[in-house]
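User: I'm writing a short report section on ligand binding and want a predicted complex to refer to. Could you take this sequence and magnesium ion and write out the structure as tokens? A short remark afterwards would be nice.
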Amino acid sequence: MFAPIREAEGTRVERIILHSDLNAFYASVETMLHPELKGHPVAVCGSVEDRHGIVLTKSQQAKEAGVKTGMAIWQAKEKCPRLIVVQPHYDQYLKYSEAAHEIYSRYTDRIEPFGIDEVWLDVSDGQHSFSHGKTVADELRETMKSELGLTVSVGVSYNKIFAKLGSDMKKPDGTTVISEDSFKEKVWPLPASDLLFVGRATTKRLYGYGITTIGGIARTDPEYLRSWFGINGVKMWQFANGFDRSRVCNYGYEPPAKSVGHGITFTADLIDNTEVCHAFLELAQGVSKKLRATNAAAMAVSIFVRNNQLYWQQHQAKLANPTQSWRDLAETAFTLFREKYNWRHPIRSLTITAIRLIPADAPRQTDLFFDQEAFEKQEKLEKAVLDIRRRFGNAAVTLAGLMNNKKLPGGRLDEQFVLPNAMVQ
Ligand SMILES: [Mg+2]
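Assistant: Sure. The structure tokens for the complex follow:
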């Protein structure tokens, strides 16, 4: 074992961690598939036909014009009138994400995916110098460009937190090394919100205590941070000081299933939102069960609606967080339905499909103060319901609204459940 040595870049280090981030991933893939887009400001947006759809990613040119991720299309076009809006093609993004993963696997088998376009790599493997990390990072960038036509930004550091911050510093196509000697100068001036897991709510509270930068967190007495934020305050302080020791977890990467769906053709047409709401709850349970069985979580939901004239429409929406929860799936599906369906005709069949699947044990890209307790409680309840249904059949537990619903194939019993807020009409 080697003790950590506090010396300059190029001298002996204990771990060499890389964080690699595909630049403007969706927009870059679109530009590559449609070269005529090259050099233009491009935004990949959810629901393009709807001017309230939002920007998922944007090209460098669009970014320079002030277009931001999460902006509504109309806002983005106000900022950048020449903006070209394109629809997402998730199957292509998954294909390129897998190809990138194959390139990473040439360097190490310790690869931890973080969302579809980011990974951590542990390339220590007998090497103890950051110059090795930088060499790998530069090679990776070249290989991505020549083999996939995509660029990545790579951070090289001795812990995952700083490696991730490093990959944000030179975009597109850059390598940034953050050593134990340089982190105070490179990391500490950054806004507190740049630190992984410090979300909007936490940032606001930190501001209240006069802390605005990562350095501010690092220099605060960890006992104060503990008294304000509990154990998460201490974690934040550790992250800011480079004491993060978490390992790069290898998930035994397997190409994920593309999607998991569940559909019903009703015995009689559905005629209002209430019936659709109930049907979505039922369908979402089926999808949730399949997700849990394959240890996958969905980043987005797609709904397929067919009316009694046999015309169909399909829509999709991004989820706030990757999920396996039927409540999340049903709520998003129903919200989407209410936005899109105009009820000119009754409905014959409905399908919910979980799309953009990632491994369920991938870390949640969320606020450090994500309500873990409430989340676990809900997970427990959902697992219990699915378990009872597995053992005693679907009729054993169902939702209050489904009682006596003659339009769903199969008999139903009742069980009282609280509906998610957005589904209460
Ligand atoms: Mg990216």
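A remark for your report: The pocket of magnesium ion is lined by residues 21-23, 25, 117 (CB under 6 Å). The longest strand covers residues 347-359.
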